[in-house]
Write a structure and sequence with these properties.
Layout: E1 3-8, E2 16-18, E3 31-36, E4 39-51, E5 64-67, H1 70-96, E6 102-108, E7 114-120, H2 128-138, E8 141-146, H3 149-156, H4 167-170, H5 180-185, H6 192-195, H7 210-217, E9 226-229, E10 232-240, E11 245-250, E12 255-259, E13 264-265, E14 268-272
Parallel strand pairs: 7-8
Antiparallel strand pairs: 1-2, 1-4, 3-4, 3-5, 6-7, 9-10, 9-13, 10-11, 11-12, 13-14
């Protein structure tokens, strides 16, 4: 089995496998120089060397070249300061070229050989003329990267409706698929203000408890099903999934809440229900 070390290039971002080579004693938090498709990069160790199944490795592993020196780390700090100052200039030049785009962040490689400009735009942007201007001004290689609004929220940070730091900026390394069905599954009101994050997209947190709700719903009747209750037959109107309670509209004309174990499915008396664990 191949031996790998897990590395991140920015805080709270995707982890990548690298071949540690002889540096099997690397510890979490250490800075290293690695070989990538875009050249040499400064990165940080998150998970020390370990063996993984070969199926987990896609393609050939890039190498960890060496431990980063103090000079490497000082360069990173210097160029990070320069990148902050570059954001305003990049936005100014984009406006001069009439480009409908918003510069979110500029990032230099640790040695200043490349400047990456991350931006958001509603449509595809022809930035070739802009790149030429930026390359002349900064005297370095320019890389433009169009990102989505969720990526923008992750980069900028902020606070969610819960009052805590955004999940994407604090611990989510990758975005997961989130659908409106998850909100329906959890009986969350479908108004935009209730299920949307600061990015305007569905909240990532909708996925956190979805599996639990899905498993719990399997033990309960479905809304609209005919059930037999201690007070006679009726139709399921509402489910309280967490408490395992079912609101039933009885044929007598009244509506009443029952515990799931007190109900059975009409036409299938052997189909009884239980409380979610």
């Amino acid at each position: 089995m191949p031996q790998v070390v897990s590395i991140q290039f920015q805080p709270v971002t995707k982890l990548y496998y690298f071949d540690p080579g002889p540096l099997t004693d690397l510890l979490p938090g250490e800075w290293v120089i690695v070989e990538t498709a875009r050249g040499r990069e400064l990165a940080q160790v998150v998970i020390p060397a370990k063996e993984v199944d070969a199926k987990e490795v896609e393609g050939s592993l890039k190498r960890v070249l060496r431990r980063a020196s103090k000079y490497d780390r000082d360069q990173k700090v210097y160029w990070a300061q320069q990148a902050k100052a570059a954001e305003g200039y990049c936005q100014q030049k984009a406006n001069e070229h009439g480009l409908d785009m918003k510069v979110v962040r500029c990032t230099y490689s640790y040695n200043g050989e490349r400047l990456t400009v991350e931006f958001v735009a509603e449509h595809r942007v022809d930035f070739r003329a802009l790149v030429r201007d930026l390359a002349r001004h900064f005297s370095t290689r320019i890389e433009m990267r169009q990102i989505g609004v969720r990526d923008q929220a992750k980069l900028i940070g902020g606070f969610g409706r819960c009052g805590r730091t955004l999940c994407c900026a604090s611990f989510l390394r990758e975005f997961h698929s989130v659908s409106i069905r998850m909100a329906k599954n959890q009986n969350i009101p479908l108004s935009s203000s209730d299920i949307s994050g600061v990015c305007g997209r569905l909240m990532c947190s909708l996925a956190y408890e979805n599996d639990m709700y899905t498993a719990a719903r399997k033990k309960l009747p479905k809304v609209g099903q005919k059930v037999m209750t201690p007070d006679g037959p009726g139709t399921v109107r509402y489910l309280n999934v967490l408490l395992g309670k079912v609101t039933v509209h009885l044929e007598k004309g009244m509506q009443k809440e029952f515990d799931a174990p007190d109900l059975s499915l009409i036409g299938h008396p052997e189909r009884v229900f239980s409380m979610p664990e």
